[in-house]
Amino acid sequence: FWSLAIANLADYLAGRELTPKCDFTSNELRASVVIDAAPDEVFDSMTQPEQFRRWFGANVDIEPYVGGRFAMGGFELDPGGAKFVEFEPGRKATLRFADGMTDSWELEGSDGKTRLTAVQSGFDPANPPYPGWTGWLSGLAALRRYHELPQWRTIWRQIEIAGVPEGMFSIDQ
């Protein structure tokens, strides 16, 4: 929540478009942002581990192909990870988690910009996973800022969260 709130505050003060906020009254978890970068660049920053670590702030291992794994914290912390069930470079990807939930990203390019639409589905509609969704939204804000701000740097200086395994997060620049 705070990462998204801070990014939106900074963007508001700079006159930039805001990232969608989490609607805690809806069970539809869909958001769309326009990023001033080509679809291939945006897609690579979402599927190449070195780039993902940089903007998202989490260590991640990614096998970028259908059937490949995506593991927050890396394969050592999450050996099974989520699996890519769709993967079209520069266009879309869908991850399926062990509990059946899916995260989908679809990219559309126009005039050197990318409309990225993210959808989370496959969960109990009576109990939407708002914490995870808020995390993805804050990630979209970070991804947009990563591509658009020449002097971009992470807002995090130190990360300590009780119950989160050591090595999950990275703030290395």
Structure notes:
With 173 residues, the chain is an alpha+beta fold. It has one domain: START domain (Alpha-D-Glucose-1,6-Bisphosphate, Chain A, domain 4). 28% of the residues lie in helices and 25% in strands. It contains four helices and seven strands; from the N terminus they run H-E-H-H-E-E-E-E-E-E-H. It has a seven-stranded antiparallel beta sheet. A hairpin with a 6-residue loop joins strand 2 (60-62) and strand 3 (69-72). The longest helix has 19 residues, at 130-148. The mean pLDDT is 88.
Outline:
The chain has 173 residues and is α+β, with helices and mostly antiparallel strands. It contains four helices and seven strands, in the order αβααββββββα. The longest helix has 19 residues, at 130-148.
List keywords for this structure.
173 residues; Alpha-D-Glucose-1,6-Bisphosphate, Chain A, domain 4; 4 helices; 7 strands
Tell me the CATH architecture.
2-Layer Sandwich
**Which of globular, elongated, flat, extended, rod-shaped describes the shape?**
globular
Number of domains: 1
Care to count the β-strands?
A: 7
Superfamily at the CATH H level? START domain
Count of runs of 4 or more consecutive helical residues: 4
Strand order of the largest sheet: 1-7-6-5-4-3-2
CATH top level class name = Alpha Beta
